[in-house]
């Protein structure tokens, strides 16, 4: 993919979609950023507002329309359209309305940009990703979800605060559902190459015992609900996370990210469900999953998370 022509399209010009566009422009992710939204006045206003700042970012242009044709020749399409999460509402409770919207809205986008890599961000992202694969017939590599990329970033931030080290030196993943049943992979986590379970507070941080790890997990799971309660939506961090996923595809980075993709074969008794595991992301999209070691508790938690998602898939006849 030549940087001079690469194009990122974003479906939905709400708080999340515009935050992705803003992050992508600042990071110089794509030369063209296209916004699609059924609200013509809203998308036109967002395009104008973003365009007024183009002097201050790497060279790019911003376009937008209610017409899916604006996505033509996209290299990456990020789908954010969906029902807005209300305070106290779980991600899975959003499923029914958003599945119907995805069924209607996504196929015309795929028709306009059949060769793009698709990143689903709309919640509940794992179920929506599974539904989108059914509606479009695209392979798992070409269409996948943002998964727990944001959750893993939240985990790393909290660990960096607790242990008083730079967040860039924390390597830890959240796996499973992007939601209440997600699990931290403590047994494979490291700080500066030191296994997390062997970490001692030598830098002035606190002891990372089982109680501390439980509290951090609860904070990761509950943080979105607190943000939604306070301001109505989470948008900045998911904007950065989504732009980073697009960048990994556009730059063919072979970067390991915990995106949500379809498990087609048997993975420790798990199959036919979309959930997050550390995955190589490159120009082809979601590639191989890392054969990451799992403790007995982690494997049990991952299976339980998968069952939660399969129950929801079955509920909606997917």
Automatic annotation (TrEMBL):
Claim: Oxidoreductase is one of the keywords in the record = yes
Keyword line:
Allosteric enzyme, Cytoplasm, NAD, Oxidoreductase, Phosphoprotein
Q: Write down the EC number.
A: 1.1.1.27
Q: Which PANTHER family match?
A: L-2-HYDROXYCARBOXYLATE DEHYDROGENASE (NAD(P)(+)), L-LACTATE DEHYDROGENASE
Binding positions for NAD(+) per the UniProt entry = 16, 37, 42, 82-83, 121-123, 146
What this protein is called in its record is L-lactate dehydrogenase
Where, by residue number, is the active site?
178
Q: Which organism is it from?
A: Gordonia caeni
**Entry-annotated residues carrying Phosphotyrosine:** 225
| Transferase found in the keyword field | no
Sites where the protein binds substrate = 85, 91, 123-126, 151-154, 234
Q: Which reaction does it catalyse?
A: (S)-lactate + NAD(+) = pyruvate + NADH + H(+)
Question: Mind telling me which Pfam families this protein's record contains?
Answer: Ldh_1_C (PF02866), Ldh_1_N (PF00056)
Sorted alphabetically, which InterPro entries does this protein's record hold? L-lactate/malate_DH, L-lactate_DH, L-lactate_DH_AS, Lactate/malate_DH_C, Lactate/malate_DH_N, Lactate_DH/Glyco_Ohase_4_C, NAD(P)-bd_dom_sf
What NCBIfam families would the database entry show?
A: L-LDH-NAD
Q: Which residues bind beta-D-fructose 1,6-bisphosphate?
A: 156, 171
What does the record note on quaternary structure?
Homotetramer.
Q: What does this protein do?
A: Catalyzes the conversion of lactate to pyruvate.
